[in-house]
Structures are given as C-alpha cells and as structure tokens.
Specification:
alpha/beta; Rossmann fold; Dienelactone hydrolase family protein; 8-stranded mixed β-sheet; globular; 6 helices; 8 strands
Length: 231
Amino acid sequence: MSDPGAAPQNTTFPRPGGEEGHGYLELPPAGHGPGLVVVQEWWGLTEHVADLVRRFAAEGFVALAPDLYGGRTTHDGEEAMRLMQELPVDRAARDLAGAVDLLLGHEAVTSGTVGVAGFCMGGAFALTLASQQGDRVGAVAPFYGLPDPSSTDWSGVTAAVQGHYAQVDRIDLDVVRRVFDDLRERLDVPVELHVYEAQHAFVNDTGAAYDEAAATLAWGRAVEFLRENVR
C-alpha cells in the first residue's frame, strides 16, 4: 500500500500556475555546480530516488527530485501502476517545470541550463521535459523509459540526449532505436543510445533486477555526459 508522507522532502518551489511543489534537493560538496533534475520511478520519490539525488550531488551537481506523487510511495507493482495512471500529466509537467525554474534561479547553480536524468516512468518524463523546456535543458539522460512516440512533439528538443535501455524490458527496443535515429537527424548535438545486457530497472539497487556491472557502466557514462553538456 502507498505510504502518505513517506517521500523524502526538504524543499518547496512554486509550480507554474501558482501552486506549490515539493521535492528533495542536495548540494554538492563544493556548494555549487550545474543543475540537475532527477525524475522518479513509478514507485514515487522513494529513499532510492533520494539516494540517486545524493549520488549526483556527490558528483558535483545541484540535484533536485520533484515529488510527483505528493508524498505517496509504494513497493507494490499494481499500486505503482495505479499511481502512475492516476498522475495528472499536466500537474507532473508543472512540477517538473517548477523544478527547472528553481534550479535556474538557485544561487548554487552555476549553469545556464539544467540536466535531466529520469528512471523508468521518469525516463519518459525526462524526454518530455526536454521537449517542453527547449534550450533550458542542456542534456537529458533517460533510463529505460520512453514517452509515446506517436503523441510526443520532439520538435522542442535541443538538448544532448544519452539513453540507457535494457535488452530485457517491456519497452520495444526497435521503437527506441527509431526515436533515437530520428533525434540524431533532428539535432546538431550528441545523441547516444546504450543498450545493456540487463533487465528493466537495472540501476535500482533495491530491486531484484539490479545489475551492478550494467548500473556502474551506465552511471559513469551518464555523469560524464551530463558534465560535458550541462553548461
């Protein structure tokens, strides 16, 4: 069952439209660095997502995970599906836009753009955010998530893109490859696609699909890519 209020939260920010969003923010050891939005899996803003934020901060990013479920988390697959399906897409978009606004206006952020890293459901939202925010996003790294290509307007994407996908997944890799081929044709920035001999959610070290070798390789690639392209 979901656990209301369980999500780690330590910051608030205004959403476009006047409402208040919540999230988890960490600064790097230096106290300043490029901004990075971390987008949650379908489980919610769990302790695992908070740990990802801390890990990105340790790599030098001012990292923020907006709480898209309003404090709810779960470890049950059926409920996670329900929470994802019940999530108003427009509200999630406002939360993510508010997170970009917070970072670009934060005194600790040294970059003129933000990076975005998203996992599972968050991987799809990461690509959508890059399309909606245009040149405010310098780089996006989706992990095993993809928005519906038939209803996504890719024309707004100007960010460098690095995708991380599993061989064994619910996502059709042929569709993923077509999307990335299309992005390569559209964009005059790096577009990379990496596929791992692993299963969906291979970075999540709290789950059964965790693959240490694939996770370590993907993490190193993503951190380097984000550092190079978020300026």
